User: Which sequence fits this backbone?
């Protein structure tokens, strides 16, 4: 299953369940080890994240990830301004990375969880789940339809690091 199939499955599950607060889920396969896939996701975030989807856009300087529970993810603008994206909840290298997210929607932060699993033929399955949707933030869920494109950027980065 590729990320497009998963995106369609996610949309189908949402339509069938009628649950507008259902988690957004996507998977992508990368031809690297789990450790390398994790490092590319966490330490390479500023490389693969689309700069147009940041508060600073072309004025983005960097995205900083403090890769430990309680750490922060912070976007830095060239003008010295900062915007906190969220807090790291779990950071298990090669296994899982989870953090809150609140830069693009109102209400409670949501939670992005990324799991890294070995594939039988080699490589890693990266499964992203974006959940925590409730009445306070549900209006922002529609802004998060671009995960497949972001994960494709991530895959390209992970496989060429």
Assistant:
């Amino acid at each position: 299953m590729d990320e497009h199939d998963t995106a369609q499955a996610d949309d189908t599950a949402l339509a069938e369940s009628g649950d507008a607060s259902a988690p957004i889920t996507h998977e992508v396969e990368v031809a690297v080890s789990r450790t390398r896939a994790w490092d590319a996701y966490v330490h390479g975030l500023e490389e693969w994240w689309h700069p147009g989807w940041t508060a600073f856009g072309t004025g983005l300087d960097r995205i900083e990830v403090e890769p430990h529970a309680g750490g922060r993810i912070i976007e830095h603008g060239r003008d010295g301004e900062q915007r906190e994206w969220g807090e790291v909840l779990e950071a298990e290298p090669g296994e899982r990375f989870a953090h809150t997210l609140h830069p693009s929607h109102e209400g409670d932060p949501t939670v992005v969880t990324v799991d890294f699993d070995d594939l039988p033929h080699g490589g890693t399955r990266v499964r992203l789940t974006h959940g925590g949707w409730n009445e306070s933030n549900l209006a922002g869920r529609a802004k998060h339809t671009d995960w497949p494109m972001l994960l494709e950027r991530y895959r390209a980065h992970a496989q060429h690091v």
User: Anything to note?
Assistant: The first helix runs from residue 3 to 17. The radius of gyration is 15 Å. The domain at 3-49+96-158 is CATH 3.30.530.20 (Alpha-D-Glucose-1,6-Bisphosphate; Chain A, domain 4).
